[in-house]
Amino acid sequence: MSSSLYEIVMLPDGEVVLQRANNEGEPLIRISFSDEAKFYLSDTTIDVAKAMIDAGIEAVEDLSNDAMAIEEEEAEEQRVLH
Question: What is the end-to-end Cα distance of the chain in Å, rounded?
């Protein structure tokens, strides 16, 4: 897997996206806030979007680690010691 740089960008329509820095392909994540949410968030909209993206990435890492641990346990259960 190649290493890529990513950036979080607020588009002119107020949508926040996570995209490759070279702008190739579709954004990986899109976050849209309602007008009411934008009103309450004011200047912190991008900060909230960043926190949401960070939390999502952390959740994926945790789920991946859990899945690997389960696979390792299952592999150990299949071993027979003589």
Answer: 39
Helix (H, G, I), strand (E, B) or coil at 12: coil
Query: With contact defined as beta carbons under 8 Å apart, do 61 and 53 qualify?
Result: no
d(CA 32, CA 59): 20
Tokens of 55: 């939390």
Q: Where are the alpha helices (DSSP H) in 1-82?
A: 35-41, 45-77
pLDDT tens digits along 60-70:
998 888 777 67
Cβ atoms of residues 31 and 52 within 8 Å = yes
Measured in degrees and rounded to the nearest 5, phi and psi for residue 54 equal -60, -45
pTM of the predicted protein model = 0.71
Round to whole Å and give the CA distance between 67 and 75.
Answer: 12
Q: Are strands 16-20 and 6-10 parallel, antiparallel or unpaired?
A: antiparallel
